User: Fold this.
Amino acid sequence: MAAYQYVLRSGRSVPDDVSIMGYSNFKQSEIFYGGLTTIAMPTYEMGEKAAGMILEYSAGNREALGQIVMDVQLVERQSVQAKPV
Assistant:
């Protein structure tokens, strides 16, 4: 959101001159200057998986720690505009 404000203060337009995208899909993203395009992450499930990995590791399973890939969702709002190629 700070980048969004910086672009506006510099006299440029979002999304006409600069496209801006955030992550986490905070509630403020919806109302911030007409909407900030963002990536929605499954934060509850991420915490649940992390806690499970820690518990397994603590119980002696040294292979419990590893990479987990989770789906995310693109939430399109007004801060991004496709540019012609």
Q: What stands out?
A: The beta strands are 21-23, 37-40, 73-75. The radius of gyration is 18 Å. The chain has three helices and three strands. The CA atoms of residues 12 and 18 lie 7 Å apart.
